[in-house]
Amino acid sequence: MKSSKPGKMSREEGKELREGESSLNQDLADQLALIGSYYEAEGNIYRARAYNEAAERIAKYPRVITSGTEARMNIRGVGASISADIDEYLLTGSIRRLRDLEEKNKERFDTLQLFSGIFGIDMKIANKFYNEGYRTLEDLWFKAPLTPAQKIGILYRKHLVLRIPREEMDRINNRITEILFQLDPNLKFVIAGSYRRGEASSGDIDLLVQGNGHILEEIVEALDKSGILVAKLAKGSSQYMGILRLGPDFNAHRIDILLIPKESWATGLMHFTGSKMFNILIRRRARELGLKLNQYGLFEIDTHRQIPVKTEEDIFRILGIKYLSPEERTPNLSSLPIVSESEETSN
Ligand code: DCT
Ligand code: MG
After folding, report:
1. Secondary structure of 122-152 in HEC code, one letter for each residue
2. Cα angle: 146, vertex 104, 33; to 5 degrees
């Protein structure tokens, strides 16, 4: 997860684990809702409502939207201008209409940027705070009804926007390995995400641990005792979100600890290794074969039967894709190397 990405705290347990593709519609919906909020601020109630309603429906739409026309044909309230905005967003990743509104409402824009850069404050909450009259972090700190996690977000904001150099990630990995080995030498764990993909820096620490039950509490306690967990943001039965700091000479960073049951290990490892783009492509491939792939497992869509997979290699093999090492699962991947039938039979 992005260390500086706000809003995660508002998600309830169960939804907390990220689904690759649904976030594409959500990103689009967020942009449209943001346009809606600017229109609302300008008193353009009619347009505000149109954008907000379209955003809500797009967020709930069950398939990934691939064009403005598709949205216009299938989603009530999407007319010509929203359809054009969707195309522009899908094509360029940005919407001119939104940039113009931001420029026209510069003070609002700057404040929303400031607020939404805080962990635990997403655009929706940032808008709410702005509408309630808050303008500075001091306003928020002293006057707004902040959650404990948002307060921590403000305290550590300067650290949390920084990426973690690989050299520091290696140290974090070593330290966590020492602590967890002491706890249980047989514990299976790995730092996934961009670190496992070999990237030069990471936004956060995505620690996966194999197991069930109370082991999460024991892990958190062990890390806490060793002094490297400096704040707790949220905890569910299978996920812990906190802040880790090696010591005063280091910055503080976001850590997510995810408990993965043994039967989901391969799919969980693949999901949390990413990249997000790789996840989208491999899930799409699975669907083409009548299968559903997520962090919990690989399933037959028709029968809901779970197909047992022990390793990531198993998943690649079943999906007829050449094995890609974590380093090869880059964010700018555009397609997966399909194994041709002749190669398959010759193997
Ligand atoms: N993930 C996903 N869909 C999302 C978000 C995340 O499939 N919407 C998966 C892929 C990567 C993994 O979860 C960890 O997420 P992040 O930490 O956000 O990504 P990262 O690749 O580790 O990048 P960063 O270095 O910024 O943490
Ligand atoms: Mg990460």
Report:
1. CHHHHHHHHHCCCCCHHHHHHHCCCCHHHHH
2. 50
Query: Taking a C-beta distance cutoff of 8 angstroms, is the pair 100, 38 a contact?
Result: no
Helix (H) / strand (E) containing 291: strand 291-294
Does 193 contact ligand 1 (Cβ within 6 A)? yes
- Cβ atoms of residues 151 and 142 within 8 Å: no
**What's this model's pTM, rounded to 2 decimal places?**
0.83
Query: Before 275, cis peptide (omega within 30)?
Result: yes
Residue whose CA lies nearest to ligand 1 atom number 12: 272
pLDDT in tens, 214-241: 999 999 999 999 999 999 999 999 999 9
| Strands 297-300 vs 229-235: parallel, antiparallel or unpaired | unpaired
The token pair at 281 is 């492509």
Q: Is 295 in the pocket of ligand 1 (CB under 6 A)?
A: no
The string of DSSP codes covering 182-212 is: HH-TT--EEE-HHHHTT-SEESSEEEEEE--
The 10s digit of each residue's pLDDT in 56-77 is 999 999 888 999 999 999 999 9
